[in-house]
Batch of 2 targets.
Target 1
Amino acid sequence: MPIVPWREQMSLNYPPLDEEHQDFLNVVNQAPVAAHAGDFSQMDWVFEKCYDYVRNHFAHEEDIMERIQFPDMEAHMNAHRTFIQNISEFRQRYENARTAADKKKAAIEAADFLNLWFLGHILSRDRLLKPYLVRLRNLPPRMNYNS
Ligand SMILES: [Fe+2]
Ligand SMILES: [Fe+2]
């Protein structure tokens, strides 16, 4: 699977979120390398990074959506919840694999899923936030923190 480069289309012109997306894209790009090499310790790292991402990044993005009163917040949050469910299922399948060959197969499937999910989510759902992020500037200072 080819490495996915960061593209201008992915940018929200808001560095705190852009940097988190860029960091995660790096993880997404490491996944097929680890999976195809059968490098399970690197694959474990990929799964751990996914959990960090849902804990930190989703919380951050959802907090911003609330502050800017993003109209499609509920659907976006549901997409986040679905990802958490999906990635947990992939992890489970990977953990439960009885042979190295099955584990590698599960890792490749998880890597493919991550790749497709990341592109789909950032280019459809996350991108919709872009025009609303200017609202952050007009919030009272207490709500206008930058992280
Ligand atoms: Fe995001
Ligand atoms: Fe998102």
Note: Residues 27 and 46 are 6 Å apart (CA to CA).
Target 2
Amino acid sequence: MALGKKAVSTLRKEFPALQQTAGGRPIIFFDGPGGTQVHGSVIEAMKRYFVEANSNAHGAFLYSRRTDEVTTEARRALADFLNAPRPEEIVFGPNMTTLTFRLSRSIGQTLSAGDEIVVTRLAHDANVSPWLALQERGAVIRHVDLNPADCTLDLEGLWAAITSRTKLVAVAYACNATGTINDVALVAEAAHDVGAWVFVDAVHYAPHGPIDVQAIDCDFLACSAYKFFGPHLGALYGRYDLLHELPSYKVRPAGDAPPDKFETGTPSFEALAGATAAVDYLASVGNRYGGRFAEGFSHFDGRRLDLKAGLAAIGAHGQEQCRRLVAGLQEIPGLRIYGITDPSRSDHRVPTVSFTLEGLTPREVAGRLGTENIFVWDGNFYALSVTQRLGLEGRGGLIRIGLNHYNTADETEALLGALADIARLGS
Ligand SMILES: Cc1ncc(COP(=O)(O)O)c(C=O)c1O
């Protein structure tokens, strides 16, 4: 067992939302891919910021100095989280979508007509539309297909799409609709072979496994703290030399060096404080429960080591959770899973499992589960290319079960029982 029952039970108690009830019954949160519940230390850190540091940046007085410290700490924390060489390579923004549009607009300045950008159909639209927008600058967009049988990336198609004209390859670390993990290091290698940059959308992967931008050798990578137990905040890693070179859209008094040149306006300092706490929480999972996983990361130390061990433990736990969920779902008549179901390939997916149920729309299924206090998402989850490609757009999309490390085996069984009842009763 990667995270035993006792560990999960201890960790759950640290999340105030997980202690809530509605109508006198517990709530089962399987909506993590839309946003995870927040660790208690995150709430405390944000509260502390408002009481003990609330100010604007770069002033000559105590609270402003504390605010600067909060920003510095958050950059260090995210650099540790992603194993970025330098904290200055972390750009904060309201969310991943805004940061990606910001980056694409800057990159657009460097493109010539006919330059190519590769996007995939296994993507959230935040890693498609910002690149499509560059068509107005003459960029040509190449779309790489997915294999509908198991919702993996069409790698042959990807290699064919990357050519000497390619300037950037935009790929997801994990798909938020199907749970598929892509081999982003391999994609980065192929992009670099032709002199292109690679942008990795790690939003969905971040709560499920360790991220190492140096090992991936990516040029840019984005994530969002609200998907890994923190507040609503986006973070973009960019190689320092690229952030330095790229033009940015900024106000004149703002700093010209990275990351300042990409951070427009006053940030949510309280969210920065919360993001540091979220990273520290994940490090504490490693410190408390990651012992046997730490061995694989002996070249790290301190918080970076704890983060790697914690997320490796969470990742292994997720694979166990996912195998049981998939096996249980497969027993329900009329239920069709879209994604990898082979248990021997569970390391190629995160525990996000989407499906349809014959005779009912995804909204009807999610609504019925909702009345049982089981929170799940339905629709396209903004992974528009996925639902379009699978022929599910216009038919309500999918029902998505997103497991996080704080979910229990009992919760999975409750879900499977409820779904079996829904399938039996039908429409
Ligand atoms: C894979 C993926 N990419 C991007 C996003 C967009 O992130 P944000 O809400 O931070 O803009 C999401 C949000 O659900 C996502 O799941």
Note: The longest helix spans residues 302-330.
